[in-house]
Design a protein that fits this description.
Blueprint: H1 15-24, H2 32-40, H3 44-68, H4 74-116, H5 123-139, H6 142-160, H7 183-197, H8 203-206, H9 213-241, H10 244-247, H11 253-258, H12 269-276, H13 278-299, H14 305-322, H15 326-367
Length: about 375
């Protein structure tokens, strides 16, 4: 499956855990609670848990699709299924989705820096500084991105563990009454929760870079499970800390909670949290951008990846410099949610059905 990729570019199967979990743990950790609670209220943690568990089925579908692809990824599957031209069009659309998703993460993180830390620094200045770092990491190749994904899981996990510092402020009664919301309410919360799990679909592009891909599936499922449990626990802690009426009006619930954390040598812990959270959002952006660059490079082999990366990063800077209104923040996030939901719950099952039928036809021809 990955025979066309040199050995020195491959990573061990267990790294897929860090790649998937790292891609799903981004800026949404700081903002999701108020959005998901607008449907099922304090029961929204059930919606998150149900959605997370359903992703294991989607991951199984992805693995099956990649098994039928000539090069073990969705890019070669598109080409084999629809030919060079139509397959290339689909790959470019996929690259656009990955690029916009990466932009949304960078855009939201800069928004957090301006609100919580330095509001006097312009968006384009943040964008240029972060784009230089992103260029260095993505141009370093897939193994470098895997390394940053590893630290992007370990260090944020240590940071999030500080949330248990507020255990004494939690009130279990805020979770009651249980089972008091309709399926429609839970569906609203599920729709709002989709953005939490976006990112793992990039496995469809980088899977050929995993050694012994048969062993990688269990690590992928483990990553999705850990992400699901992490978001469920954070949601439960948040719902026990804030009453629902207040939570619905908070944009950054996680940062608001940790404001009460103080150490003798550090008064504003949220500052350290926000700056260190750069390690959490960097793998998300880098994986999205690397996937976008690879999709474009696969479609147009003569174009150098460096030029593609520079073009996308310049676009990131221009968007952050010119679209500074809050309206555009919501617009970009809405576009990503719509595209991500359609891709996960529409396009992947569609490709799975096609790959099953295609495989059955090929096997029938072989038998006859």
């Amino acid at each position: 499956m990955n025979s066309t990729i040199s050995e020195n570019k491959l990573v061990s199967p267990y790294f897929i855990f860090f790649l998937i979990h790292g891609a799903q743990t981004g800026i949404a950790v700081l903002t999701f609670q108020g959005k998901v609670s607008k449907g099922a209220g304090s029961e929204a943690w059930m919606s998150i848990l149900a959605l997370g568990l359903s992703l294991h089925v989607l991951f199984f579908m992805m693995l099956y699709i990649m098994k039928q692809a000539p090069a073990g990824d969705i890019l070669s599957f598109h080409k084999a299924l629809l030919g060079k031209t139509l397959g290339g069009v689909l790959n470019i659309i996929l690259a656009c989705y990955f690029s916009i998703a990466g932009l949304a993460v960078l855009y939201s993180y800069i928004d957090a820096l301006q609100i919580w830390v330095f509001d006097g620094i312009a968006s384009w200045e943040y964008a240029i500084l972060l784009s230089c770092l992103i260029f260095y990491l993505v141009s370093g190749g897939f193994r470098v991105i895997t390394g940053i994904a590893f630290w992007g899981v370990i260090i944020p996990a240590l940071l999030l563990s500080t949330i248990f510092y507020i255990a004494g402020y939690l009130d279990v009664s805020y979770l009651q009454p249980l089972f008091n919301h309709s399926l429609k309410d839970h569906f609203i919360s599920v729709k709002a929760s989709v953005t939490l799990f976006l990112g793992f679909e990039t496995v469809l592009v980088y899977f050929p870079f995993i050694k012994d891909s048969k062993k990688a599936s269990k690590w992928g499922h483990l990553a999705i499970l850990v992400t699901t449990l992490a978001y469920t626990i954070i949601a439960l802690v948040t719902f026990m800390y804030f009453i629902q009426g207040k939570l619905e009006h908070l944009t950054w619930p996680t940062l608001t909670m940790i404001k009460i954390i103080q150490f003798p040598f550090l008064e504003r812990f949220e500052f350290i949290f926000i700056f260190t959270w750069l390690l959490a959002i960097m793998p998300v952006i880098c994986i999205y951008l690397w996937s976008a660059v690879r999709a474009i490079k696969f479609t147009f082999p003569k174009v150098k990846p460096t030029y593609i990366l520079l073009f996308l990063l310049v676009a990131y800077v221009l968007v952050n410099a010119n679209l500074v209104d809050l309206y555009y923040t919501h617009l970009i996030q809405k576009v990503v949610i719509i595209m991500g939901t359609a891709f996960l719950f529409g396009y992947i099952p569609f490709l799975f059905i096609i790959s099953v039928v295609r495989n059955a036809i090929i096997n029938k021809k072989k038998n006859t």
